[in-house]
Amino acid sequence: MKPVLTATLLGVVSIILLLPIANALTPRSDFSDNVSTYRLFGSKVCGDHLCNPGEWNVWITNLISSQIKKVNTLIGIKSQDNTVKNASYDTSSLYTNGDITRISTFNMGGGQYTSFVSVTNNGPLGVNHIVISQTNPYVKTLKAWISPQWDSSISLYKTSFDTSKSSLTQDQTLNIVIVTDGKPAFSLDSLAAR
Fold first, then answer.
1. pLDDT (average), residues 56-63
2. Which of 10, 82, 126, 143 has its CA 20 to 30 A from that of 59?
3. Which CA distances in Å does 90 have to 21, 71, 97, 148, 192?
């Protein structure tokens, strides 16, 4: 019995000594700036916890909005009130005027660019339909979002946003995030009150 026990213990001790030491700190092998920490096995991370359904869109919109407000105060641009009022669809399409007031585009590496597009409603009506075109040939729109209240529909070069839960009122600015597979250029096709 003792030789079997001794052989078993000797085998276990040799396995323990020969196995590599586990280390949570692994050396970095990718030294590009393409490190992403916002996804964990397909789940999105909101700050210090995994996001609940719909929470990530709200979280990223608030983050981008607070960063833009901070930049605006640093360079002396007066920020506009960004409250959202409820609206409902009706059967008529009334078009209003507006423009793209600012575009900030960042190279995310791997050929992808993230753009923050600020759209301002200059018309008297509340807007709940926005269409933006990406005008550079051979550049496709991959993702686009505003907030959970706005639904986005992406085609090859156009992105439309619709909502029945809120509206962009006169002199308000809305920040839109658009991810493309190349350096983009944008134009505002329409702002509409439906």
1. 74
2. 126
3. 66, 38, 19, 21, 12
Question: Distance between CA 48 and CA 129 in Å, rounded?
Answer: 34
The residue whose two tokens read 């608030």 is 62
Predicted model pTM = 0.52
Strand-pair category, 94-96 with 129-134: unpaired
The tokens for 88 are 């409902």
Give CA–CA dist 117/135, Å, rounded: 14
Residue 24 CA, distance from chain mean position: 29
The CB density around residue 143, as the number of other CB atoms within 10 Å, is: 13
How many CA within 13 A on the CB side of residue 114? 8
Q: How far is CA 99 from CA 10, 46, 131, 181, 187, in A?
A: 77, 32, 11, 24, 9
Side chain identity at residue 156, one-letter code? L
Max intra-chain CA distance, the chain: 93
Q: For residue 111, give both structure tokens.
A: 């050929």
Record the tokens describing residue 135, joined without a space.
């005008």
Q: What is the pLDDT of residues 173-190, one digit of tens each?
A: 889 999 999 999 998 888
